[in-house]
TrEMBL record:
Organism: Amycolatopsis pithecellobii
Domain of life of the source: Bacteria
Cleavable signal peptide: none
Start and end residues of each Bacterial sugar transferase domain: 12-205
MF GO annotations: phosphotransferase activity, for other substituted phosphate groups
Protein known as: Sugar transferase
Keywords: Membrane, Transferase, Transmembrane, Transmembrane helix
Amino acid sequence: MTEIVADTRLRRGADLIVAVTALIALLPLFAGIALAIRLTSRGPVVYRQCRVGRDERPFVIWKFRTMVANAEDIGPVVSGSEDPRITRVGRWLRATRLDELPQLVNLLRGDMTLIGPRPEVERFICYYSPAERELLTVRPGVLGPGALLFAAAQSQELTVAADPEAHYVAYHLHPKLALDLAYLARRGIRADLALLTRTARVVLKR
C-alpha cells in the first residue's frame, strides 16, 4: 500500500512538472494551431467531450477541434481517418497527434496522468467486463498503450465500416483494453519510458 501511495505521489509530481513546462514552452505552437483552426473552419478552437475517469467519475477532456462543428450531431462518436467530417487542418492534427495537446490542461488539473489507460466515452463503459473495469480504478492517461497500438488499424477500418460504433465495440474495444490491462500489471518507470519511446517513433513516422 505504501508503495502504491508513493508511486501515485511521484507520478502526480511528474505530471505537474510536465504540464507546466510543456504549456509554457508550447504556447507559440498552441497559438499557431488555434489560428489555423479559426481561419479554415467555423466553430470553437477546442473540442470538449465528456469521458469517464478514475472511479468512474466523468470529466471533460480537451482537444483541438479536428472535425466540423457539431460533428456528433451528424455522425457517430468514433471516426475513421477518411471521415468527411474531418477538416483539412484536423487531418494533419490527427496524423501528428497534436490535437491531443490541450489535454495538458487536463494533466494540470489532475483529471489525467501522462501515461495510463485512455479515458473512454461513457456509452462504451457498459461493454467492459469485470476485469476490464479495473482500468477505471486509476487516473486515465494522455498517452495509452492500447490507443497507441490500435490507432492506425482502427482509423482505417472505421472509415469503411457500415456501423463504426458497432465495429469499434466488436473488434477494437476489448483488444485495446487488454493492452491497457497488460500495461497496468507492469506499470512503472521502465514501462512508461518504453511507451514514451514508442509514441515518439509513431509520431515521427507520420
